[in-house]
Amino acid sequence: MISPRLKYVLAFVGTLVTLHLLLSIHPTYRDHTLPKALRPGSSSSSVTDETIVDIPEAAVPSPPTSEELRIAEEANSSRKKANAAFVVLARNSDLFEFLSSMRQVEDRFNHWARYDWVFLNDEPFDGQFKRYTSDLASGETKYGLIPKEIWEQPDWIDEDKAAKGREQMIKMKVIYGHSVPYRNMCRFNSGYFFRHELVLPYDYYWRVEPGIKLFCDLNYDPFLLMQEQEKVYGFTLSLLEYKETIPTLWEATKEFMKENPQYVVDGNAVDFISDDGGEDYNLCHFWSNFEIGDMRFWRSEAYIKYFEHLDKQGGFYYERWGDAPVHSLAAALFLPKEKIHWFDDIGYRHEPFQHCPQGKSNRDQKCWCDEKDSFDWHGYSCTRRWVAQFPDGTIRKPADGQRTAPWKRSDIPEQHPLINATAA
Ligand SMILES: Nc1nc2c(ncn2[C@@H]2O[C@H](COP(=O)(O)OP(=O)(O)OP(=O)(O)O)[C@@H](O)[C@H]2O)c(=O)[nH]1
Ligand SMILES: [Mg+2]
Questions:
Q1: 90 Cβ below 6 A of ligand 1
Q2: Which of 189, 266, 286, 314 has its Cα between 20 and 30 A from that of 150?
Q3: Which Pfam families does UniProt cross-reference here (predicted)?
Q4: Which residues are CB-neighbours of 108 under 8 A, at least 6 positions away?
Q5: Which residue lies with its CA nearest to atom 8 of ligand 1?
Q6: Residue located nearest, by CA, to atom 27 of ligand 1
Q7: Ligand 1 pocket member 289 (CB < 6 A)
Q8: 174: domain range?
Q9: CATH number at residue 189
Q10: Residue 418: CB within 6 Å of ligand 1?
């Protein structure tokens, strides 16, 4: 029989033990009470005393106060900005593929820069498109309708001739060779996007397409770079165009130059687009799914007249002239070459090619692309030719060990890398 006194002592000791066991779950209590040897991970884990670093309380940064956040916000909103916007041509069905592009542009740059987004469509944007895109945007969002008279194949195009052209391209397996909407899109991007009423108030634009990738942080404002360095056209990737899509584009361009020699400037980038001083077109062009540009150039007399001259030939429909070679030929002929800027530090992918910044630039900007996977030095890229326009070294040369592109056209494989990709 246990005496009542012993009962109390045992109950007290039991309570103490239970309390200790419960408190041992808490790491701070456990660290102060358990012998070192019994602390979890002390003998079997690879963490030793030397690897455990006590962080003094003062070294742990405290979160910013709301007042500090307000001051930072105010400083950012009053920072110098260019008169610029992202310009997006898209269908309602492009929404989710586009949101992945938009989210990356916001995350890498626009969350702090806060430029507006202008969306254009040949049909009214639906509520879902507007809801998702405006939720992601840091700047204002604007949604515009493209008038049918501008978008659709004009009446004066001979439809029989255009249909024959399309059939021919289907046979040749030219990507989008069958498509009239694709041709509408190319003509609109060549001659009209910069004149749309929602786009007219802006000077600079950045074209963003669905399904692109932006690999690196942008720690500066590329619109301000364009403005301050008086650049007019910016690109990341360049490549050779399919000959089959533009059989008569160069002839039409030469005709325009002959009739309007005043628009062709000295010191232009003709050697980028021609290997024989302007006699023949070498098919090099800037890939226009990424463009940062000054739209005052597209609105200039030289470019508008050039576009109208091309449009009259009907090549947007009889052939399949792309806005990329049209923009590139104009920029290379009507601008001094220094006004064209290669955004070497913007890591960018539009299937199936990418430009990945190299070395220090790759690390400093926290890029997530593989440096070795850059299209720049591939045979079908024209970027090496672009770099050669600046022999004084103002533009980076390929680093040692990087793949180099063959210089002679005859070394380049016959099969274009995009042919068969999505042929009809
Ligand atoms: N509103 C509208 N936008 C279009 C139409 N066709 C293409 N676009 C847009 O125009 C841009 C270029 O079209 P894409 O289909 O990306 O053409 P691409 O870049 O040559 O080819 P892929 O990207 O490989 O399909 C994209 O932003 C599209 O969303 C169309 O019929 N209507
Ligand atoms: Mg695209």
A1: yes
A2: 286
A3: Glyco_transf_15
A4: 214, 216, 217, 218
A5: 90
A6: 209
A7: yes
A8: 80-389
A9: 3.90.550.10
A10: no
For 50-85, how does the pLDDT look when each residue is reduced to its tens digit (9 = 90+)? 556 666 666 777 888 888 888 877 777 788 999 999
284 in a structural domain: yes
Whether 403 is in a domain gets the answer no
Instruction: Indicate whether 129 belongs to any domain.
Output: yes
Q: What would the mean pLDDT of 10-27 be, rounded to a whole number?
A: 52
Contact 210 CB / ligand 1 (< 6 Å): yes
Identify the active-site residue in 291, 308, 351, 371: 291
Q: Is 291 annotated in the active site?
A: yes
Domain count, the chain: 1
Give pLDDT, residue 26: 52
Average of per-residue pLDDT across 352-363: 93
- Separation CA 95–CA 128 (nearest Å): 8
Atom 20 of ligand 1: nearest residue by CA position: 289
pLDDT in tens, 150-198: 999 999 999 999 999 999 999 999 999 999 999 999 999 999 999 999 9
By the CB criterion, residues less than 5 angstroms from ion ligand 2 are 209, 289
Decide: 91 in ligand 1 pocket, CB within 6 A: yes
CB crowding 277-313: b at 16 or more within 10 Å, else e? ebeebbbbbbbbbbbbbbbebbebebbeebbebbbeb
Average of pLDDT values for 256-270?
97
Q: Whose C-alpha lies nearest to ligand 1, atom 3?
A: 90
